[in-house]
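Can you give me the bound-state structure? Components:
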Amino acid sequence: MIKGNLDKAFTYLESGAVLLVCVSEGKKDNVMTVSWQMVLDFTPLIAICSGSWNESFEAILRTKQCCLCVPAADMIEKAVGIGTIHGSQCDKFKHFNLKKQKPAKVKAPLIGGCLAAIECKLTDYIEPYGILVLKGVQLWENPLKKERRIIHANGDGTFFADGEFYNLREKMRERLPEGVERL
Amino acid sequence: MIKGNLDKAFTYLESGAVLLVCVSEGKKDNVMTVSWQMVLDFTPLIAICSGSWNESFEAILRTKQCCLCVPAADMIEKAVGIGTIHGSQCDKFKHFNLKKQKPAKVKAPLIGGCLAAIECKLTDYIEPYGILVLKGVQLWENPLKKERRIIHANGDGTFFADGEFYNLREKMRERLPEGVERL
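Here's the bound-state model for the whole set.
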């Protein structure tokens, strides 16, 4: 992955991408799968919703940082596997053969095979709802990756990849930030 | 649309559906398009993020209720149109030929042609982020509608409809609530 323009980071999330959320506590790295996520603004501020049943959730509260990685459709089996195994059971990066890449601004690994990754700092915790408020500080993109389709979870154990594409930019021109076309 | 099991409501949202959010203040009905939305739990509690530039956002704060309607891919032009016209300019229901249907538990219209609709009560407002916390109180489903694909916004004026389908229920069985298969 190569560094990208942070202004575009929200375009990898807004459609409801399943995310692999990476954390690091010294020697121990971990990753969880999250589909309860929402863009809060274009800077970007990002909300993810999880709870203490996820070891990685607690790690974000302790370390105040994480990386949001956006897997493509070729990684759906891994994304589901990561979401069903507890971090205490194994080193998920080894178990799922995830290629780590060094981050630039936070201490938490990126997953090199993803479509994109956003390094984030924790800026707030809305405890009653388990909402972590994250500020994106660095975007990484993978322009050479052939599989471009993002994965979406229905929440019932089924998923869809991106299908038919619609370009309605001209109709929405006045409401869009400039220069944010998703790769 | 016919009444559905509220336990399944979140399965229409989790994948990142573009939503048409309907409100009513006495004689005046309005609707806005929202793609910044997130499931918070299975009851379901739902977060949407918007701001006072949307007349309908202010109407939800005043009336404490709304309906979240889930358009399918055949409604993408209407969804974008609704998101680019201000409610003060016209009656959007007439302008976009939206067929209103009576709700059961809140005062806000449903849009009959959608895939699903969730009647909601406002339970909290997280003001610093423009997050409305909504509690779903009634699900409506449209099982006879032929177009089943949900729409996802990338945020840059482009959209995807649901594409390739993956069923990974067996792998995720332990983590899923029971009986929530999305239609």
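A couple of observations. Chain A has one domain: 15-175. The mean pLDDT of chain A is 95.
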